Fold Acetyltransferase [Rhodococcus jostii RHA1].
Amino acid sequence: MIELPEVGTRVSLRYRLPTDTDRPMTDVVGHIVDPSDDAGDVVRIKTRRGDIVDVVREDVLAVRVVPEMPVRTGEIRNLEHAAALGWPGTEHQWLGGWLLRHGRGVTRRANSAVPLQYSSFSEIAQVADWYRARGLPALISAPDRLLRLPDTTPTDAENLVMTADIAPSGEIPVSQTPDDAWLGIYQRDVPVDVLTAVVDGEVGFGMLDGAAVGRVAVTEAPDGTRWAGVSAVRVDESARRQGLARTLCDGLLTWAHQRGATRCYVQVVDENTGARALYEKMGFVVHHRSRYVRAEDLL
């Protein structure tokens, strides 16, 4: 039997068709995704259009790894725009093509500036002044290609920005605000007004079996794509490895799809191999990377 690459790999798969067809074989190109428990011995491929093709494992004739499609700078900019609106802190301000976010100093994401349209270093100086006035270090979230950093610039917390098409699968209760039970499972000291903040969009909070929680924000990119960003996912230690995180995320994305979202993203710290494995099984692939840098190191 032909050996297959790991889940999340983009492949070209040749497989045998039923004998009563005009063609004995055909090909499909897409990412290997994790089949459901009741799918049997199949290989599940998700195409670029979002279609799911199931191939019986024994019908696979050949497989080769296909390089990822190149991501355009404009696509990074559109996604980062939507993501910034989905986690804007309790105060935000546009400075030219930058979005400056302040969230009481809690979480780097809610207290960093995003250079969606960088033009000059004078903007970085203004960013530093804006955060200095609020008693915070001037932290910049620097996505690939949107802000080119000198090789010697120290960076921190490199994130993988992973994306997928939304394929609705199951529903869970989703509320507009996190209640005490949700916050008890989350266990991070993030103010509720930081968690619920969103610009020109909707935010929802899901809880499953009293043991798993997560957040989803639906916002729109400048190109009109409605994105769903999943974050704040946590499962109680006593309930891990039972599939709750995946069921929770599927439910959050179904809720987002009902509100017009067609694409989804997660932002995962590079070292978090567990979270990355979960999202790869759900069909997420790396879109681009981002990291944090201090404004003073660029001035």
Remarks:
- The first helix runs from residue 73 to 86.
- The mean pLDDT is 92.
- The chain has six helices and 16 strands.
